[in-house]
Design a protein that fits this description.
The chain is of the alpha+beta class and 239 residues long. It has helices at 12-18, 71-84, 134-138, 147-151, 157-178, 180-189, and strands spanning 2-9, 27-34, 53-59, 91-93, 97-100, 103-115, 118-128, 197-201, 206-214, 220-224, 230-233, 237-238. α2 packs across α6 and α5 (157-178) crosses α6. The longest helix is centred in the C-terminal third of the chain and has 22 residues, at 157-178. The chain is globular, with a radius of gyration of 18 Å. The mean pLDDT is 92.
């Protein structure tokens, strides 16, 4: 594990992708501020609070059958484990948002760098609201919260980072070996969407239905309202 700190970056994921050739496997790149932080679907992640966590983990897998599709879910479980150490009960919103009492506290974004058909590396980014004011949270267009607001004290960013890095590294090899099966129970037990009626936005349409469970690969198993048939969804966003 190598920790790399920068004062200001465009984004930690962008830095990781730009320097993928020289960064070592299991490098943890974090910064004080991001000038162009991004979430999923190219959304802006507000990154001007220098006491929050903006982090990218650089991974360079060299094993066959690497569980790429479940990597963000693994980081969800790891982050929830760390949040629990602060006495709170986080929830997971499929596929890779972390909530507290229905309010988003962390988001995850994985981006793969390739050369031709070969994977050069993965930039696995996460933003966690650690020390934000209520006023800052109210500026976000969806319900959001920060760890300090939940526990009524300031959070030490480096302490949180070290716990997250250690938790990630400690279980990483087992996750690589077993894939989603390794985190399935933890992921599902913290999911906030099982047996709930949801809307799932896909690239070209919206599906409405009730989540029955997750598949063995971590995809949504949904009973669609219009057809009353089971549908497996591997990519999308719950609304």
């Amino acid at each position: 594990m190598e920790l790399i700190y920068k004062e200001t970056l465009n984004s930690t994921n962008a830095y990781a992708k730009e320097h993928m050739d020289t960064l070592a496997d299991m490098s943890f790149v974090y910064c004080k501020n991001q000038t162009n932080g991004k979430g999923r679907l190219n959304r802006t992640w507000i990154s001007d609070n220098d006491k929050n966590l903006y982090l990218t983990i650089v991974l360079k897998p060299q094993v066959p059958n690497y569980p790429y599709i479940n990597l963000t879910q693994y980081l969800c479980v790891v982050t929830c484990s760390v949040l629990k150490k602060y006495g709170i009960e986080p929830q997971i919103k499929w596929p890779n948002d972390i909530l507290i009492n229905g309010k988003k506290i962390a988001g995850i974004l994985a981006q793969v760098s390739t050369i031709g058909h070969r994977v050069k590396g993965i930039a696995l980014g996460i933003g966690v609201n650690l020390n934000s004011s209520l006023q800052e949270m109210n500026l976000i267009d969806k319900p959001a919260t920060s760890l300090n607001l939940e526990v009524n004290r300031e959070i030490n960013r480096e302490e949180f980072l070290y716990m997250l890095a250690n938790e990630f590294e400690s279980h990483y090899n087992e996750f690589i070996e077993k894939g989603f099966a390794y985190i399935e129970n933890d992921y599902i037990s913290q999911a906030c969407f099982i047996n709930k009626k949801i809307n799932v936005n896909l690239a070209d349409k919206c599906i409405v239905g009730t989540v029955k469970n997750l598949t063995k690969d971590g995809a949504l198993l949904l009973c669609e309202n219009d057809t009353n048939k089971d549908v497996v969804i591997t990519m999308g966003e719950i609304q």
